């Protein structure tokens, strides 16, 4: 369901922005409210147990402090490990993308090679170069149909490729 916010956004006052944030349909607060409530209650319970003298002795408070310190230290080490892991992942993803782009067959380079090897200014040489480049374009369209949804939508079958002029015999 699409929710229209145009009337609320048009009002640039603080009240208009507050109304927009508190609008319940499709609201960000709606998604986070239950989790926020649970975490807030959990924090309040732990805070009351720790800060009052009714529940914990001094020794238990010291144990709690030690546990808190250890968890904080482990989180710091986990953060450093996560940074290295994300850096490794980003490098791997970038390297993979670069390899794909380098190994992808581009028509321009092969068209220049065909232009230099199929020599001649006559009609036969020109038609031969044009046919070879057209076949490479057809091969590229057929490959990209399997790789790209956008190309598959544009060329769903061979008839659409023929109508577009990529497959002329």
UniProtKB/TrEMBL annotation:
Regions that span the bilayer: 36-56, 76-94
Family listed: Belongs to the anion channel-forming bestrophin (TC 1.A.46) family. Calcium-sensitive chloride channel subfamily.
Topological relation to the membrane, as annotated: Multi-pass membrane protein
Compartments, record wording: Cell membrane; Membrane
Name recorded for this polypeptide: Bestrophin homolog
Transmembrane among keywords: yes
Record key words, sorted: Cell membrane, Chloride, Chloride channel, Ion channel, Ion transport, Membrane, Transmembrane, Transmembrane helix, Transport
PANTHER family according to UniProt: BESTROPHIN, BESTROPHIN HOMOLOG
Role: Forms chloride channels.
An example Gene Ontology molecular-function term: chloride channel activity
GO CC term (a single one): chloride channel complex
Signal peptide: none
């Amino acid at each position: 369901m699409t929710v229209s916010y145009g009337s609320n956004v048009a009002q640039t006052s603080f009240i208009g922005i507050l109304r927009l944030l508190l609008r319940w349909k499709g609201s960000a607060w709606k998604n986070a409210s239950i989790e926020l409530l649970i975490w807030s209650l959990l924090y309040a319970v732990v805070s009351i147990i720790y800060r009052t003298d009714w529940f914990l002795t001094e020794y238990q408070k010291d144990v709690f402090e030690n546990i808190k310190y250890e968890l904080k230290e482990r989180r710091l080490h986990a953060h450093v490990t996560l940074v290295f892991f994300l850096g490794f992942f980003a490098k791997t993803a970038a390297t993979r993308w670069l390899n794909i782009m380098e190994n992808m067959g581009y028509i321009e380079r092969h068209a220049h090679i065909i232009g230099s090897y199929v020599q001649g200014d006559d009609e036969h040489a020109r038609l031969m170069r044009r046919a070879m480049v057209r076949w490479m374009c057809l091969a590229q369209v057929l490959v990209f149909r399997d790789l790209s949804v956008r190309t598959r939508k544009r060329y769903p079958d061979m008839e659409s490729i023929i109508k577009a002029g990529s497959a002329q015999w």
